[in-house]
Amino acid sequence: MAISAQSVVVAVSEKLSSQLGGDAVVLDMHSGKYFGFEAVGARIWELLQQPRKVSEIRDAVLREYDADPAECERDLLAFLQQVQAAGLIEVKDA
Questions:
Q1: Which pLDDT score, from 0 to 100, does residue 94 have?
Q2: Which backbone phi and psi does 40 adopt, to 5 degrees?
Q3: Nearest Cα to Cα of residue 56 among 42, 40, 44
Q4: What's the count of helices (H) and strands (E) in the chain, helices before strands?
Q5: Boundaries of every domain in the chain
Q6: Cα→Cα distances 37→19, 42, 45, 64, 83, Å
Q7: How is domain 8-92 classified at the CATH fold level?
Q8: What is the pTM of this model?
Q9: How far is CA 68 from CA 6, 31, 46, 72, 76, in A?
Q10: Are residues 72 and 58 in contact, defined by beta-carbon separation less than 8 angstroms?
Q11: How many CB atoms lie within 10 A of CB 57?
Q12: Mean pLDDT on 5-26
């Protein structure tokens, strides 16, 4: 499923995650793979713990970090597509 600013995204509940400093580590229990996210990625992962529109996550990142809005949305969509491909999130149309 394609991800847009209006998509609703949420972390899949079967994944274990932990905050380590400003980073996050996620364990996929089924595959045994670990995923690591640094600062901004860790914040996005934190926001993904509750269902949210992509636009809400983008707006939160823009409030908390100095970023160009268009670049932020582009990078966020790329990040979400990667974690979707890894099976870490569910994506629904708004």
A1: 63
A2: -65, -45
A3: 44
A4: 3, 6
A5: 8-92
A6: 9, 5, 8, 17, 11
A7: Outer Surface Protein A; domain 3 (3.90.930)
A8: 0.89
A9: 19, 36, 21, 6, 12
A10: yes
A11: 21
A12: 87
